[in-house]
Amino acid sequence: xxxxxxxxxxGDCIEILGKAKAPFADLIFADPPFNIGYQYDKYKxxxxxxxxIAWTRDWMAACLNVLNPAGSFYIAIGDDYAAHVRIxxxxxGLNLRNWIIWHYTFGQQTKQKFARAHTHLFYxxxxxxxxxxxxxxxxxPSDRRLTYNDKRAxxxxxxxxxxxxxxxxVCGTFK
Length: 175
Hints:
Oligomer: single chain
Distance between the termini: 33 Å
Strand content: 15-25%
Number of helices: 5
């Protein structure tokens, strides 16, 4: 695969990343279909659970094939297969840094259960010690400083919690 710098690679990751001869990615963000029956243009999103889990293992392995040794791998996934993604990550030798809950305010409406209004975000690294995490780029003001004006608060802010509710979803109808 040709040298990629600051590029987004879109397409079937098993097919595209399978052609790579060596790791090249510092960051991978995967947002696969959730297997919940959504009507996509090209993908069947309602397959048997065993087939979906096997496919998940395949695309995660393809991503791992191109992830640099100090790279980060983020995966967005729904409730039904979050535990499987976590276990497959372990089986592939990935290190879980965070299991983040991304809360949003317009979940799918339901009739017989509470509405789902979140997505799971897994933050994996290949190595448990050698990875890049630019904490200064994501720091936020702490409540200790904002609410209580506590002088002990770090003036640089704090790292965000593992429940995110300040990032809105991007939908196909957005302009």
